[in-house]
Design a protein that fits this description.
Length: 119
Amino acid sequence: MDDGRRYSALTKLGFGALAFNSVVALYNSWGGAGSAAFVLAADAALVLLFLCLREFERTRGGAARDRNIIKAAVWALATLLTAMFASRVAPLMPPVIGTAVWIVAVATVAGGFWAFFLN
């Protein structure tokens, strides 16, 4: 990534795997608008998270305000993904385990907030 616009082969491979997995998931959820929307929203959030992290790396040594805005975006996207996946996994589990899934999700979000903004 010399000029900041090129992506490594590993990044391209990761996006290729994400695209392939998304196409398979969309095919398997054909007819289920909720499942298709979930796949598309999760993909969009993952791509935005990647772009935010890349921008965060680029602003190393930059203005603190810019870095804080990017940190907030990263935390918000990570929180969104955590809540999305917990909302899909918890109902499939027995009630006690489903509650544990949500407790772990909330602890993860709170820990991320503490690490990003309070530490």
